[in-house]
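Data availability excerpt. The first of two example chains:
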Amino acid sequence: MVWLSERERVTLAVLGALALAGFGARAWQQQRTPIRAVPGPTPPYAQWDAVVREAAEVHLNRATADELERLPGVGPALAERIIAYRGQHGRFGNVEELQQVPGIGPKTIEALRRYLSIE
């Protein structure tokens, strides 16, 4: 028969308790049902990313109102003003000419610059 010191018996008891707790946790984990993602509504930021991808490049001199409306900050009224300005004054020579359209200032130009092209 092997005699263990008090310290060795306590160590074995702690190790045994930890092993039992580990086995119990593993058994519980195997019994529970896995969490599955349920399709839900598309988050707003995902919709915005899709809109930005669609508006990756808009040709300012031939864009329709629908194409212009895909640009950030451009609604139906502003799109119509851009088309009306283009109809009255002809083709845009550069993006900065958009400042001549009522409702468009330097901040709007900077926000739109990366999406616009002049062919």
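And the second chain:
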Amino acid sequence: MNTLLQLFLVLSIIVAVAKIAGHLSTKIGQPPVFGKILAGLILGPSLLNMLGWPVFRSSQAETALLLPELVHYLAEIGVILLMFIAGLETDIKGIIKVGNNAFWAAAGGVILPMGIGTWFSRSMGFSLNESLFIGTILTATSVSITAQTLMEIGALKSKEGSTILGAAVIDDVMGIIALSLVVAFSLNPASGPSSQSGFSSIGLLLVRIAAFFAVSVIMGIKFFEPILKYAEKLSTTKAVFAAALVVCFIYAWAAEYFGKVAAITGSYMAGVLFTRTSFFKKIGESAKTFAYSFFVPIFLLDIGLRANARELGGNITFTVIIIAIAVLAKVGGCLLGSLATGFNMKESVRVGIGMISRGEVGLIVASYGLTHAIIKRDIFSAMVLMVLVTTLITPVLLRFVFPKKHLIET
């Protein structure tokens, strides 16, 4: 069977299983996202290893590697679209109102996990570079899973929801700065933090991040409405949504290529800026149909398909403790930051839980460390399991701490 036919079959299985799993999840009072990620774990190499079934194997090694990559690329489109939709449903005034809370929640959620993670890794005998990198992975926050769950339970526009979304954007900037510093010093130990080249690199990074955000906002305010009005005049189907989609992907590309922040930050920003236009409701309806019917289910199942608990080896104790640190330190850091800025305990706990999930951000950081030989494969597998566990428990805990509302299947 050629790769194209294999892709047709595997996508049919993924989308069908995702929708059924999401439905079953709502039947037991959990958000659909929980069932979809769990289904991915069952189908992945940890249990059934679906992509290793004879029907998906190939006699040519290069072709055999292609199918998982194709599925993952489609999953990446899913998370971009998911964050674009989250941006379209974001209450800008609400985020501005909680801006101070978001900053300190993000700061606490970066400092505490990195500090405790680094200290624990050093106590387990890992090198300083490895320990710092493990701590850096723990700083990551993937708001995509949280945003999906908040949308499902009707809490995206709540005060806590707005704070989580704002804090996640700030967390991404802080995390990329920490990652850049750790990677720079790991790959070039001679360039210490006090060296002139080290300061120059940090300065350049901050300038690029600031420039990306500034240019993105200005372009969105000035050009989004005229672009959509021009598209509306075109005698072609769904031209307005197509124009919005082009902008979404350009922002995702520019965020990572020029701004050195995650691509999902760019697509989220595009969605937020489109809320200023007169077309945002029309764009949102089309985006949901386009994303939730195909791309988002692939993204959610792909998380489980990429995890392999069998690679942990003898690091079970380390893995269990690092997962506990990942959860408790993130919740604790965000909770302290929220309490310090006027949130009550219940609201602060909600913000902390909303920031637990590492999702694709944690996987990206861990993959970078493995590729550049900063961490070994067994540690990488432990980090993948940590990412998976935090991603799985976040929807459950959010559903528990937020007021019970009608669950919406997506």
